[in-house]
Structures are given as C-alpha cells and as structure tokens.
Amino acid sequence: MSTIEIAGKTIELDADGNLANAADWSEDLARELAKIEGIEELTDRHWQVINYMRKVYEEDGGAPSIRKLTKESGVETKELYSLFPKGPAKKSARIAGLPKPKGCI
Prior knowledge:
By secondary structure, the protein is mainly alpha-helical. It has helices at residues 27-36, 44-60, 66-72, 77-83, 88-95; strands spanning 2-6, 9-13.
C-alpha cells in the first residue's frame, strides 16, 4: 500500500492507486483526485457518473463495469470517454473513491 498527500491529509491507496478506505472520500478529495487524473474541473455530467458509481457501490459492494455504466448511468459511451479519457470506468472509480471495477485491466 502507498499513500498520497492531498490537502494536508495523508490518504492510503490500494495496490491499484485507488482509495484503500472508501470512508476517506469527500467531494473536495474527488476534485483533487480528478486534477491528478488530468481533469481540471468536474462538471455536472462528471458528478452524475461519480454519484451513480457510489450508489452502485453502496448497493452492490463493487464499482460498476463500463458496460453497466453506459447502460444505467444516463451517460453514453462516447461521452464517458470524453469525460474520463483513457479508461472511464477505472478513472471515474478512482475519483469516486472506489476500488477498481472488476474487469478493468
């Protein structure tokens, strides 16, 4: 496990670079994680995906796959890739404070 310093707090990360403890997540932390991922500002559409992912995680105990994201989040595949370039499920899960979705490389 590694750690990252964000806004004066030391946050533990899992082996994939995602939060080790989902309880450490906050919207402010999400904004900082997004910047690390190259996303300067989280729009309403970003938050729609992030909030959907967190809801699924709370209900099912796992982050949704890209397939489930595109079918149920209200954001189509092409837009997901523009919002979260180079791996929308993996990148949005990281920003949402969740473990990497199953099936992501």
